[in-house]
Amino acid sequence: MAKDDYVPLFETRPVKGRILFRLFAASIFVGICFICIYRVRFLPEEGKVERWTWIGLFLAELWFSFYWFLTAVCRWDSVYRLPYKDRLSQRFDKELPGVDIFVCTADPLIEPPSLVINTVLSVMAYDYPPEKLSIYLSDDGGSDLTFYAMLEAATFSKQWLPFCKKFKVEPRSAEAYFRTAFEPREDPVKAREWLSVRKLYEDMKMRIETTTKLNRIPDDIRKQHKGFREWDFILIDGRDPNAVDVEGRPLPTLVYLAREKRPQFHHHFKAGAMNALIRVSSRISNGPIVLNVDCDMYSNNSESIKNSLCFFMDEEKGDEFAYVQYPQNFENLTKNELYGSSFRVINKLELPGLDANGGPCYIGSGCFHRREALCGKKYDKDCKVDWKRLHERKVKESASVLEETGKVLACCTFEQNTQWGKEMGLTYGCPAEDVITGLTIQCRGWKSIYLIPQREDFLGVSPTTLLQMLIQHKRWTEGHLQIFLSRYCSLLYGHKKIPLKLRLAYCPYNLWAANCLATLYYVAVPCLCLLKDISLFPKTSTLWVVPFAYVAFAHRVHSLGEFLWCGGTFQGWFNDQRMWMFKRTTSYFFAFFDTILNLLGFSKAAFVITAKVADDDVSKRYEQELIEFGATSPMFDILATLAMLNLFSSLGAMKKVILEADHSKVLDLFGLQILLCLLLVTINFPVYQALFFRKDNGRMPSSVTYKSIGFALLACTLAMY
């Protein structure tokens, strides 16, 4: 195409309201400066306890200010991307590249096979030439149950793919579609076909779930398929002229892989599985574009591939991009997002800020990669991709030969003395291997794209219990902190390789866990000082109260406004604030100290899979938006103890106000402290319900109740002496 005729395949637009955000950020900065001046000017000169508690609170406030600065930098120049897939079709319709899709699973009990195959079916049914699609499932559990489900899915796909095209199905996960769709009554012929395919799906689902429940594959089925005895198996060979659907159209290639794992060789969890898929797929299909999704995150938009290719195939800028990252969205959120799992503000406001500064981080799922960038190639501005050459397949070996080759590539010793996990593929050595991988790719000169489409592209399953959510965030924050304390710290590793603002933009996520200390101090110490008559904030009658009030109030109002603008509710925002505090005082706390112990050699990193299913009672309480506390955990001990500590302090403060002759004097001296305690009591209201009033199985265990009361009383008693 001549340069004068060039029309971009995508557009970049600045986020609206950037000037207002900068003015707001400047006002907050001024408020923070006045708070710092107050802390220094009125530092207590007498009383050792008073002086050190004051210094501790000042240090906590300095940390919060520093962390706020990092988030403000991240969002200073946010942009949105708009792909034009119609232009893509006009220019490259016959030259579209091959796309390899990786789906990873590890445990058939935590990640049920019926859930896994719905993700597989959704990506098999993309609106894309099927002969250019190859889907790979990595089963790190090596489960016969998962392989059996894949056999069923391969058969059902012959009906499902043409059905999706004829009925313009969205989403293309059969479970998600049939859960909400209605039969087309206006056309009896279509209605019969619709009901027929739904029955085929329900019968398949029943067979899979029955087999999973019995934990046994029927002998006749086991004998029919050698794949039950193999590491890898090509279920559908897209090159085979007989691999067609019921209407005679070609089917995508479908491959099952269970890589070899032995105790004496570290398998590197999901990163190791992904690297094995990269190698195996390079011999079978070798698509220049690779999509990876978690097994619970089905495709909700059949146009996702074409949207992504608008960036990779743009003639002027496309060669700069290594990956296109989509937001993580979840389909099972309650109306008011009980556990704050929507990531609304992060998805719509924070990550677009990273995009403007060089590109978002890679978050492990819902990401389209350029294969050569994922395999370690450095960006070269003089190297241009010839898509006409790449769109043709070159593999000539038979399926059986490719299966034998795949066994070699997926064996546990293949990576020894190679660059896999270092300079090639996903990087090893950290639970947050995806973030490190994205950073190393960017440091090799590549840029990345963050795309928020009108229709959510991928929908997953969020935790349905509080403990699951806290454990999940502990793993995430632990991985991020390990990155910050390793050679992959963006501030050091990215020096002279990526822009300064992008290096800083990684830090708010890498320092999630470090927020625990300042938050715990602010939650516990002011309340205890209230019992000891130590004032830590300005008198309400002085002007020094203004910066404290403004920063606290304006910041929260701004947070609420953003949450509502992103589509949330007021109750959802309040739940998000509650979970923010719960995570900082538990998940982040344990992640912080586990990371320190890991660095000192006293513990080892582990990969914890979040359960994707819950029993009926738990699901019912989740739908009713009742927080699930029905388990014993050190995290719940901390939550309950802090809640009781704030309750006792609030009761002590109210007693002080009532019994004091001069009420106004007490309120003037301790007004902000009392308000802080009452606010914490309000946030902890569900904890008090679970401790004392709930009778269902989701209530707080009695042992936690007794311990929390005992610890809180002890702390209050010690504080008063």
Topology (SSEs and partners):
Elements: E1 10-14, H1 18-41, H2 48-74, E2 79-83, H3 85-92, E3 99-105, H4 113-124, E4 133-139, H5 144-167, H6 174-180, H7 188-214, H8 219-224, E5 232-236, E6 253-257, H9 269-284, E7 289-294, E8 298-299, H10 304-312, E9 321-325, E10 329-330, H11 344-356, E11 367-370, H12 371-374, H13 387-390, H14 399-409, H15 433-443, E12 447-450, E13 458-460, H16 466-484, H17 490-493, H18 500-510, H19 515-531, H20 545-565, H21 570-585, H22 587-599, H23 616-623, H24 634-659, H25 663-683, H26 685-693, H27 702-719
Parallel strand pairs: 3-4, 3-7, 4-6, 9-12, 10-13
Antiparallel strand pairs: 1-2, 5-6, 7-11, 8-13, 9-11
Helix pairs in contact: 1-2, 1-20, 2-18, 2-19, 3-10, 4-5, 5-7, 9-14, 16-22, 19-21, 19-24, 19-25, 20-21, 24-25, 24-26, 24-27
